[in-house]
Amino acid sequence: MMKILVTGWHGFLGFNLTQLLLENSYQVFGASRSCPPRLANYCSHDYFTYISCDISDPRDLKKLPHVDFVVHLAGNTSASASNKSPRFDFEQNLIGTFNLLEWASRGEPTPFILSSTAKIYPLGDNIPRSFYGTSKYAADIYAQEFQSNLSLPLIINRFVTLYGPHQYSFSAPDKSWVNWFIQANLQGKSITLAGNGDQRRDPLYVLDAAHLILKQIKTPEMMNNIFDVGGGVSLVTTPRDVVRKIVYLTKNDFTKTIWRDLRIDEKPTFIADISKLEPYWKPKTGLHSGLASTLQWMRKTVEHYA
């Protein structure tokens, strides 16, 4: 049985991936600083082992077992939080990633999948990208050096915004603006749209992202690649259109919409080029069905945990 280490296993993508791996009979070691009370019984699964581990402390990595694959999803995912606390962001996203890369490179290197972000684009100097985007950019480059200099088998996934069920970081608009819009609609909270709300985006349903990582684990020829990961051109939408679809699904208008100018780090258009992935994987979930599924989960969940 293949053993997979998933850091940040109880996070948004991490939990969806962990469920998928267990459904496919992988042995999963879930590493994180803590285990949320809502998942206390989850650790009794025969194929799951929880490891209390802070990857920003290299001493803690001694707790990690030998595994066949590392999927590194842990870290701060909020640009606004990173701007308020850049040191925490640096420690979690860069130092933590470096420590884990170093750990995976010792002895016989362990294949490694890194969750990066489209927030690093455009590449180059003097580009405003927030402390979050900067920390992820640096981690991305460090990972490439471990691959080229220490022969670490590596995949880097540069994800766009994900949305879908099992994101419990409520009241955090920049962690998934799509999920935030649904939550705000259900709870009668105001939302903020930037510019004219017509920025072109391709948000990706989180289970499609999880299935991509499963495919990468099972497909050796995908190794040693950097992939842009999103819905692609077939799933392009805009924040304004997402708002319209949510209103259609809930039959409730938003309480209040606040308008602001685009921030300097916000791009009018960003669509992931998924052409390198298409021989192996394509997103299967359209926006309407993805929103409907997320809404169904959130109606059952948000009031209890928010």
UniProtKB/TrEMBL annotation:
SUPFAM superfamilies: NAD(P)-binding Rossmann-fold domains. This is UDP-glucose 4-epimerase. Belongs to the NAD(P)-dependent epimerase/dehydratase family. InterPro entries: Epimerase_deHydtase (IPR001509), NAD(P)-bd_dom_sf (IPR036291). It comes from the Bacteria. Residues 4-230 form the NAD-dependent epimerase/dehydratase domain. It holds the Pfam family Epimerase.
